[in-house]
Amino acid sequence: MAYIKIFDTTLRDGEQSPGVALNTSEKIEIARQLARLGVDVIEAGFPIASDGDFQAVRAIANAIDQESNKVVVAGLARANQKDIERAAEAVEKAKNPRIHTFIATSPIHMEKKLQLPPDRVVEKAIEAVSVARSFVDDVEFSAEDAGRSDWDFLVRIFTEAVKVGATTINIPDTVGYMMPWEYGEMVRYIHDRLPNIANITLSTHCHDDLGCAVINSLAGVKNGATQVECTINGIGERAGNASLEEIVMALNTRKDFWEHETGIVTRELYRSSRLVSSYTGMVVPPNKAVVGDNAFAHESGIHQDGVIKALETYEIMSAETVGRNAGVLVMGKHSGRNAFRKTLAELGYENLADDKINALFKQFKDLADAKQSVTAEDIRALVDAETAKVPETYRLEHLQFQSGVNMTPSAVVRLRTPEGDFEAAATGDGPVDASFKALKTLTPLPFKLESYDLKAIGSGTDALGEVSIRVNSEGQIVHGRAISTDVVQASVLAYVDVLNKLAAGVGRLRVHPQKTTMP
Ligand code: KIV
Ligand code: ZN
């Protein structure tokens, strides 16, 4: 069976999704989960992009070391000395560092964007790979917009890259333009002409502009690619990248067809999807394959009858295989700290610090008081929210709201701040709107709410509500999220999360005492 490497670029190409901006601790948590998921390569970021990106890649390189000693941590660099040096510095602490360098090869990109003749592009690729090889043994070279490039030119530039030490050759369909047969044929063309192909990893990297990212990647695998670049939930630039979970489950469910395997621990897929969705604020559509809410739901009577008699009648893979067995835990409000710690370990959270466990235990107790049964999914949501928390500069002290038929919704909010406690009241179009208006008078920082999403975790009227909001504060995108059995409270806590992130990130958020009603 051939081994197909899974190269995850959620933290680099995925983070290029419009409106997504992950902070370093969120990136580290996602990277840890990717290591648990068993990906072969984590592309941790584009270190030259900003100091924050550089620090995040560095932190991931360190963190992953403790999580797994087989995962490669890659940093992206354009084909120039400065980018490559910065990427090298960012990944230097990784056990298995990779530098991924790229240059565009399509006529339109070379002429219009780079304004370089093809010969010069080849020279720059050779220089870039050589410089990268002076830092690390593992160098990936990509031809940006390969999908619209001349195939013989690709063979030429890839051959030169291999000669100076590239170990992985990546063939991106950067603009999601290719059809599966065409992409497969191109991969085969390159595969059959590259020198030393037995020792080179040939890789796919497909975008989803025409909805073909997954099938194009699979066509690449069918034609000799042994690495697939993809993202959790398929997030990424414009329409996104190939979706990791779909590729993995296609290879896994149809092993009879592929005779290929990956190192992915499939029961971690759902958790990875939830984590990425919750941290990026990018909601997974209900009908999304493998991880969507409806992916294993059988609605029609005929189908329901079938699955009751035998699951395989309509299910080609089981929900458990991808980790969707939310399972009600036999833990109640009387469960002790040790039992809770044991449960966390069973769910895969073995390395949580004591202060985090204490904070989580308190939240678990509150939750067990508020709802009948606490599920594995609930616990995971608590852990995910807790682990990415920033220091608590602002805290919700009090929230009271009123709404109903034939009345104006209103809310009173009290906030603890470094300057003291402040309270404000407001009316609005609903209790969430009223609460946000009250909060706005307490924290008059100019930010615009760009999106608000509410999702139930589990089912039933006592389900936890997860609220995820995205704000734009003078060009800076910040996500806030929170969970609670009360959706208004979850909304307000998500707002407070934004305030804390702004305070931690820019330190210029101050409550206006003049606008408050109470010191
Ligand atoms: O889509 C693309 O071409 C890329 C490269 C940087 C690999 O993301
Ligand atoms: Zn890309």
Can you describe this structure?
This protein folds into 4 domains: 2-280, TIM Barrel (Alpha-Beta Barrel); 296-324, no CATH class; 327-387; 395-506, Double Stranded RNA Binding Domain (2-Layer Sandwich), CATH 3.30.160. 41% of the residues lie in helices and 20% in strands. It has 17 helices and 16 strands. The chain is globular, with a radius of gyration of 25 Å. 45% of the residues are buried. Residues 506-519 have low confidence and may be disordered. Zinc ion is lined by residues 13, 172, 174, 205, 207, 237.
In short:
The chain has 519 residues and is an alpha/beta fold.
Topology:
Elements: E1 2-3, E2 5-8, H1 24-37, E3 41-45, H2 51-67, E4 72-78, H3 81-91, E5 97-104, H4 107-114, H5 118-135, E6 139-144, H6 151-163, E7 168-173, H7 180-193, E8 201-206, H8 213-222, E9 227-230, H9 244-253, H10 255-258, E10 260-261, H11 269-280, H12 301-309, H13 337-346, H14 354-370, H15 376-387, E11 395-402, E12 410-417, E13 420-427, H16 431-442, E14 447-457, E15 464-473, E16 476-484, H17 487-506
Parallel strand pairs: 1-10, 2-3, 2-9, 3-4, 4-5, 5-6, 6-7, 7-8, 8-9
Antiparallel strand pairs: 11-12, 12-13, 14-15, 15-16
Helix pairs in contact: 1-2, 1-11, 2-3, 3-5, 5-6, 6-7, 7-8, 14-15, 16-17
Bound molecules: 3-methyl-2-oxobutanoic acid (KIV) and zinc ion.
The site of 3-methyl-2-oxobutanoic acid has 9 residues, from strand 6 and strand 7.
